[in-house]
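User: Before I run my own analysis I want an independent prediction to cross-check against. Here's the chain; please return only the structure tokens and, at the end, one sentence I can use as a sanity check.
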Amino acid sequence: MTMPNDPSTEAATRHHVIADTDGDRLDRMLATALSGHSRTRIKALIENGQLTSADATITDPSYRVKSGEAFTLDIPPAEPAIPQPEAIDLNVIYEDLDLVVIDKPAGLVVHPAPGNSGGTLVNALLAHCGETLSGIGGVKRPGIVHRLDKETSGLIVVAKNDNTHIDLSEQFSARTISRAYQALVWGIPRPRSGDIEGNIGRNRQNRKKMAVLPSGGKNAKTGYKVIKRFGNCASLIECKLATGRTHQIRVHMAHIGHPVIGDTTYGGGISRARRTPLNEETLKYIKQLRGQTLHAFELGFRHPGSAETVKFMSQLPIEMRELIALLESL
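Assistant: Structure tokens:
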């Protein structure tokens, strides 16, 4: 039985479904009840955390339902196929006919996705570059060669023509791109420098998170070193990526017990702060952080046009610098 909201509205539609059989797969049962939506679409919505039952989120499409069990599925409105240019200020570090290097602020999504159809770096680049962006990335990812998480700040290079896109993509695949990050993490990693290795894949309990897996996943390696320590509470570290997996630094640092400060997804949020001997001012500052304190401060590559090696640097954002000042006063 299904009781959908008015489908004519532009907002997300909420569907309440009650299972009338035992043992059916969740995605199959919902696809039958919601005949206007494909099973593939419903499966993706479940995996993206859009389904709840008894106020708990269910992300496993193969979950076996019980008769009388009630579910609520939120279906976002359809999004435009082509991102629109938007006049969003960009911090352009370098630009020529082949590429543009942007210093991305925390909070800016790189490319449109469900829930973020506008206000992204792509929307800003379309306004800034016009039609000169490489089309290889597709209509939602024009010019995008790599990405940074929404709340990760720092340097990102964007291709303005297809030859540059191909060349940079090959450099990323060959792991000849130099990328370095700085992060504030809880505690003092020991040893003070080293490599973290562990295959990364989807968390088997929560598909919206990544995890180091005992089997499966993709090989991942992160090199780190402690730059500065703040008593026994926290450290400023530098990380270099040998691979480029989703959430790699955040997952690896959490895996060794030193999550990135402000990273609520992987255990670095306010609950960890409250277990650390901090003064009230520092605790209050960490509580209002917008996301993880992770910054891509260095980016180097062979320029596809000139064949010269270029390197760009970015200073830590003000939010991280202010937190460092507070940690230094402990």
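Sanity check: Residues 1-10 have pLDDT under 50 and may be disordered.
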